[in-house]
Design brief:
Elements lengths: L1 H6 L1 H15 L7 H13 L4 H18 L7 H15 L18 E6 L6 H14 L4 E6 L4 H14 L3 E2 L7 H14 L4 E6 L6 H15 L9 E7 L4 H13 L4 E5 L9 H9 L3 E5 L7 E3 L2 H9 L1
Parallel strand pairs: 1-4, 1-5, 2-3, 2-4, 5-6, 6-7
Antiparallel strand pairs: 7-8
The structure holds guanosine-5'-diphosphate (GDP).
């Protein structure tokens, strides 16, 4: 919780100072205040759709109650954001445990463009599972970038988890195939597969991912159990655009939003969670293993409005 609070510091600071400037000298929430609030929410990376929904709800309240004091704006915003997020009924994870009742190995495919923190997120997740005594295997199927393979191996060495790799420029599907094969043979609990994220060639990306899915299903019919899209929260609206593109290219079942520390764009978590109705499972608020946290909507709102 502390690191969540710390991770959200910049976002909060920026948001509340803008909000403070807007209401200074004004006691009532009127059209002007609402217009400015709309701009603040958009500039805080909540996205246009989510912002419009929030503003509409506050307008309804103003119309119904005839009067809304600016001193109550914090409280109202908190309520509306909380109710918006709770309505999207995606379930929050409670901890890092694997879903129950899944035949081993659980196969997790991780997607996302380069630089968003994909490899780091995989390393942090692997460390969490390893800590629980789970048997983890990593597949270095991001074969497009030499550094990605090396980096995954570094994580593997560091936390004592085997990494299946064929080196650079090899066929990602063949790496994925071998990783899942080994996962089955070794009775691993989880196989995590790193994939290359070349979004600029969407057709390639789609083909590559569907080929990976096809080959790993030879070993585990339900695989992948999860397709986790990693997004860099500090890129704000770019993260939103990537989410849109990836969800068009493949079925994304969960999200991780990284680098919320050191950015004022943390509002993007609210926007993405609301817009895509795909569970945000993890947020990254720093470089250490513990800085990858399980995301909880209400904890996030609480921390934001604390
Ligand atoms: P990839 O290209 O998507 O695999 O990205 P990497 O995993 O190599 O991460 C890129 C950089 O972002 C690395 O320097 C990571 O340490 C850093 N990084 C990843 N997640 C976080 C985070 O939550 N907070 C911060 N501050 N840095 C992060």
């Amino acid at each position: 919780k502390e690191s969540l609070d710390k991770g959200l510091e910049k976002t909060k600071e920026s948001f509340f100072s803008k909000l403070g400037r807007t209401v200074v000298g004004k006691s009532e929430v009127d059209e002007d205040v609402l217009d400015e609030l709309e701009e603040i929410l958009i500039s805080s990376d909540l996205g246009v759709n989510t912002t419009v929904k929030i503003i509409d709800r506050i307008e309804e309240r103003v119309a119904r109650d005839k009067y809304l004091g600016t001193s109550e704006l914090d409280k109202i915003l908190r309520e509306e954001i909380a109710s918006l997020l709770s309505e999207n009924n995606t379930e929050d994870l409670k901890d890092f445990s694997l879903p129950a009742n899944v035949k081993k190995p659980y196969v997790l495919l991780v997607v996302g463009v380069n630089g968003v923190g994909k490899t780091t997120t995989i390393g942090k997740l692997a460390a969490q599972y390893k800590k629980q005594g789970k048997k983890v295997i990593l597949g270095a199927a991001d074969t497009f970038r030499a550094a990605a393979v090396d980096q995954l191996k570094m994580w593997g060495d560091r936390i004592g988890v085997p990494v299946v790799s064929h080196g650079m420029n090899t066929d990602p599907a063949s790496v994925a195939y071998d990783a899942v094969k080994q996962g089955v043979a070794d009775e691993a609990d989880i196989v995590i597969i790193d994939t290359a994220g070349r979004l600029h060639t969407k057709v390639n990306l789609m083909n590559e991912l569907s080929k990976i899915k096809r080959v790993i299903q030879k070993f585990v019919a339900e695989a992948p159990h999860e397709v986790l899209l990693v997004l860099d929260g500090s890129t704000g609206q770019n993260a939103m655009i990537q989410a849109r593109e990836f969800t068009k290219a493949t079925e994304v079942t969960s999200l991780a939003i990284t680098k919320l520390d050191g950015t004022a764009k943390g509002g993007v978590v609210i926007g993405i969670s609301e817009e895509f109705k795909i569970p945000v499972k993890y947020i990254g608020v720093g470089e250490k293993v513990e800085d990858l946290q399980v995301f909880n909507k209400m904890e996030f709102v609480d921390s934001f409005f604390k």
